[in-house]
Amino acid sequence: MAALALDRVAIAEVLVRKRRHLSHDLRAFAGRCYATARADPRQANSVEHVIFGPSGDFKGPMALTPLKLVCFGPPCARLVRGKTPPELCWHKHLALLTYLALSPNHSRTRDHLLGLLWAEQPERAARKALNTALNRLRDALGEARLRSEGDTLTLSDDRLDVDVLRFLAHAESEPQAAVPLLRGDFLEGFHVKDAPEFEDWMARERERYHALAAAALVAAGERHVTTEFAKAADLARRALALAPRSEPAVRLLMRAGALAGDLATAVGAYREFAQRLKTE
After folding, report:
1. How far is C-alpha 48 from the chain's CA centre?
2. What is the three-class DSSP state of 68?
3. DSSP secondary structure string for all residues of 7-40
């Protein structure tokens, strides 16, 4: 027994020396230390907090690589560090990541996703296609990025950056911080073949973000209208491009023009808006 205990200490000491090179998960041993058969507290703690306790620098399994999803403008997914795997650019994969990222709790059931992205295929083929997509994404992003719990799939939000979510977080309270995120339409120019349900969802979301973006642009413009007339007018025009019937946007444009002494812009904005309402 004493020899076995000594062997344990020797093994633990080797692991301590090489702990920075360990890649496997040692969480099961965290916080433990191995005492020998001899009642020597110094020796018992010579491998303090093996493997590795609170005083060490081991931090469990490797953290996920930061993942960035861009949804405003031409969409893309990329890893913040290192080369982005080409699998992230495949349309079905990008659609799956984006949809999960914007779903409640970043989660959806497998059946829901099958109906969204593979509804045109027989069920067996659709399930195989979903499993293949998940396997490829896990290979590219790490197993922990996409978790399965029963029939539910969840996209981990650890080190996940989604421009749409940042926009929503700032749109009302800090519109100036939200406006720079508006680099284009929601999923601009993006299409997924044989996925009509996804296309319908994308169209509805695009309209919703048009309204939200127009409101944020107007709110940001209101904060500049008394000091930076040209900037306020530009924000108002951007809002009208997204929501042509937005009364707050046209009022902002008229105020900016009037305060700048540009009555032609103020009157022109009113007439153009009234004509647009009349023809529509």
Report:
1. 39
2. strand
3. HHHHHHHHHHHTGGG--S--GGGTT-----SS--
Position 62 scores a pLDDT of 61
Q: Using the structure block, give the residue that is written with the tokens 């902002």.
A: 252
Give the dihedral of Cα atoms 160, 165, 149, 192; nearest 10 deg.
-100
User: Residue 189 has which token pair?
Assistant: 């120019």
Residues 6+ apart with CB under 8 A from 253: 233, 236, 237, 240, 265, 266, 269
Task: To the nearest 10°, report the CA torsion of 91, 95, 96, 99.
Answer: 180
Supply 242's token pair: 């997204």
Helix axes 110-117, 91-101, angle to 10 degrees: 130
Tokens linked to 206: 């695009």
Alpha carbon distance 116, 198 (integer Å): 5
Q: Record the pTM.
A: 0.75
What per-residue confidence (pLDDT) applies to 280? 74
pLDDT (mean) for 8-18:
41
End-to-end CA, the chain = 90
Beta bridge partners of residue 78, listed in sequence order: 68
Q: How far apart are CA 66 and CA 235, in angstroms?
A: 32
pLDDT digit string, tens, across residues 252-277: 999 999 998 888 888 888 888 888 88
What digits encode the pLDDT tens for the residues 141-174? 999 999 999 999 999 999 999 999 999 999 999 9
Q: How far is CA 121 from CA 98, 116, 129, in A?
A: 21, 11, 9
Q: Residue 268: its pLDDT value, please?
A: 86
CB 49 within 8 A of CB 56: yes
